[in-house]
Amino acid sequence: MTDTSRPARAPLDHAQYVDVVREEFERFLTALQGVDLASPVPSCEGWTAGDLLWHLTEVQHAWAEVVATGRPMDELPVPERPADVELLAAAPASGTALVLALAERSPEQPCWSWHDDGGTVGWVARRQAHEALIHRVDAELTAGLAVAPPTVALALDGVDELLRVMVDGVPEWGTFTPDGVRVRLACTNADAAWDLALGRFTGTGPESGKAYDLDAAAVHDVVAGSRDAGADLVVSASAWELDRWLWGRGDSSALEVTGEPALLDRLRALVTDATQ
């Protein structure tokens, strides 16, 4: 379903992604220092600060093991969650292990992944950089701190990574059928935009036997400088405001929206489902 003719976007290099994982995890821990771990996380419904801390700790521990050992995620033992009083002390070990595992390997090295376009250590580094970034935002919101923006390059890559990894594509047993609706996302502080063709994903899971009929989208790059003629909805904002909104960590007040208002709600629901 992905447009294979699209121009390649230049992401950060491997060392930069590893640095982002380290830096954002350190900021995440710093934000949660002194926070009551029973406090609610405003950007993750039903989560406490302890849930947030354990989630990122567990995710980083698992990916460190996958990268270091080559074993698939479902073969790893599930760690037991420590008591909240022990979480902050236990968490740094997982971040350190992940950073070391990524830094010691080349981005081309094969590695298990749940995504068809994954399969390398470099894919893991990129995914975990944005995982750490978004959960650092969660930590700052929970602590009542101002949310610090990343670099424009990282935010731009965050938009692209979310759209490519979370939204675009269907499994080989499924079908995407466009319905003629087109949405454009455009950055106001970088020369980047994406077209989303909306439609339906249908198919039956070969293992579960479950039938799917879901709202979906195909993502395509936009040629630099091209007009948005024909788009039913155009959403424009800085790269960081787009990234935050797509991840549900910012509201629509920072967006410039033209087109059918109902389509913004549809897009919000589609992305929310894709990123759960």
Can you describe this structure in just a few lines?
With 276 residues, this protein is α+β, with helices and mostly antiparallel strands. The chain has two domains: 135 residues, dinb family like domain (Four Helix Bundle (Hemerythrin (Met), subunit A), Up-down Bundle); 113 residues, 2-Layer Sandwich (Nonspecific Lipid-transfer Protein, Chain A). The chain is built from seven helices and five strands, in the order αααααββββαβα.
Q: Mind describing the biggest β-sheet?
A: 5 strands, mixed
Query: How many E-type strands?
Result: 5
What's the N-to-C terminus distance? Answer: 21 Å
Instruction: Tally the helices.
Output: 7
Task: Specify the CATH architecture of the largest domain.
Answer: Up-down Bundle
Encode the helix/strand succession as letters: HHHHHEEEEHEH
Q: What's the rounded overall pLDDT mean?
A: 92
Low-confidence stretches: 1-8
Task: Please describe what this structure looks like.
- The chain is α+β, with helices and mostly antiparallel strands and 276 residues long.
- It has two domains: 14-148, Four Helix Bundle (Hemerythrin (Met), subunit A) (Up-down Bundle), CATH 1.20.120; 162-274, 2-Layer Sandwich (Nonspecific Lipid-transfer Protein, Chain A).
- The chain has helices at 14-32, 49-69, 84-103, 121-143, 152-167, 239-246, 261-274; strands at 174-187, 193-204, 211-221, 233-237, 256-259.
- The chain starts with 13 loop residues before the first helix and ends with a helix.
